[in-house]
Every structure is written in structure tokens, then in C-alpha cells.
Amino acid sequence: MNLSKLSIALAFSAAVCIHSSAYAGAPRTIAYQGRLTDNTGVTVADGPYLAKFIIYDASSGGTALWNSNFQTVNIVDGLFAYDLGSNSVLPGNLFADTGRWLGITVGTDPEIAPRTRITSQAFAIESLNSETAAIATTVVDNSITASKIVDNSIGSVKLSNESGIAQGREATSIALNTTGMVDLTTVTITIPQDGYIFLQGRTSVLFNGATSMNAAKIQIDETSGGSEVQGIYSIVGFDTYASSGWHNFNCTSQRTYFKTAGSYTFRLEGKQLRASTLSSATAQDPVLTAIYIPSSYGAVATVSP
Questions:
Q1: CA-CA distances (angstroms) from residue 271 to 90, 205, 232, 241?
Q2: Is the pTM of this model over 0.70?
Q3: Is residue 39 domain-shared with residue 80, that is, in the same domain?
Q4: Which of 117, 198, 243, 305 has the fewest CB atoms within 10 Å around its CB?
Q5: Beta-strand runs (E) in 71-181
Q6: Does residue 147 fall inside a structural domain?
Q7: What is the largest CA-CA distance in the chain?
Q8: pLDDT above 60 for 158
């Protein structure tokens, strides 16, 4: 029987088993599965077979970088499994280059062609070149680029209060008055260089107590109890109400500042407007978000197609 054909059913689909050298005696292996058939596509009979696995630096010819030597694999329904590195250690720099191919020889037959390109999962083992890879706790400043971050792996929760974005919030109710602006929440952001700080605030305002005019002004400011700025504040509420019961309004406010490098504190603040002393206005769960936008992104290289 000529065992010259190997159809890969689950090549490198199993987990890459990697353990740092910081853990003594832990193996570094790659779980591999395949399906063995004859030239007509019929799976071979169940039983033990001798197979040799070699990793090369080329799809044909090239240099053998790792060799398992002949090992016994058990075939069941044409399927077999073998852990690369379980009998012969995988060198730490084996996957320093992305061009790696797996060649398989079964028994006395020649090596099965073509070789199988090793997928990107196996290259995770290259991280083990660092003896502290599994227990690293620090990263050198400015050492991670955007191309090294997996798409969609950083959500809004992780971004909040990181460099370039900050957020302040209060899970409470704050009474507004008619005498001046009342701080609802504050946010502090530190920017590394000159640029714009875009701020967005939101809160809900509850009105009750009278059917006459009851409203509120909400704005963003740097000064506690600051002056009302027309064009900056938002107004919510009604001139008249059908009842003196509770009425809820959502309100947002935005503002943009240009600042030099440094730390800055901003506040979301509010003030009540009313026609009756019986009416009340209460801000609930205010949130203020600050986003830093650099005014310069450094040199830009023009690339012609």
C-alpha cells in the first residue's frame, strides 16, 4: 500500500501548548491532527504506524530545522494525533521567521508532498524566547504600536480613564438652585502636548412641585460656580406643566477647549430656572467625559502607489 497522500483534516486546529521556561520542566508542544488515506482517498486501516515529522524553512528543499525522528502514531478511523515537540524539544527560536513548513513521512514511503504551511498559531511559541514571557508585569513606554493590538480587543470600559480619555460620574441626586451654577461632577485629564480637549456631559433632571415654569441650565465649565455662557449651556424643562408631579428630562452639553500640555479639571454644572418657590429641580447620575485630541500627529510620509 502506497501511503503517499495525507489530507489535513484539523491541521494546527488544536491549542498551542506553551509554557514559559520560568516553570521548570514544562514542555513546549504543538498539538497536531491529521487524516491518513491511500492514493484513492480511502482511509488506511486502524493500527500503529511509524511517522516522522520535520519542520523546514522552505516549501520544498530547504533546511530541516527540527526533526521528530520516527514515532509511533495510532490510526483510528483514519485519524491520528501527535504533539510536535513531545519527543524532541522544539528550539526556542524555531518560529523566529514566519516561513515554516511541516513535512511528514510515513513508514518507508517518501515524504508526502506538498508540505503543510505552518499557520500563525504556532508562532506564539516564539514569545518564549524571553524567560519572563509568562510572568512579565511591565511594558516599556511607547513600545506597543497600533499594529500589535488585536482589532476590537479594547472596549469602552478599558478606555475610560486611560491616557487620552477620562471620565467623571456621580451615582447620586444633586439639588439645583436659582442662585448660581452647582457642580454636578468633575473630570481631570492630563495631556502630553498641546491639543484640543473635547468634553461631553449628560444628566437627567427631575422637576416637580408646581405647574408653572420649571427648567434648568446645564453647562461645562472650568470654574466652580462659573458664569452662564450663552451658546454653551443647554436648557431643559417646560413653561407650564399639566400637573405638579414628577417630570424627567435628559440633557447633554458639549464644549471644546484648546490647551497646552498639562493637567486640567472641568466640571458639569447646573442651575434651576423657576417661577414658583414650590418647584424643585434635581440632577441625577451626571457623567462628564474628556477626550484629548492632539493638534499635531508628527511627520506624515507620502507614499505613492
A1: 69, 11, 13, 19
A2: no
A3: yes
A4: 305
A5: 71-75, 79-84, 101-106, 116-117, 165-169, 173-175
A6: no
A7: 99
A8: no
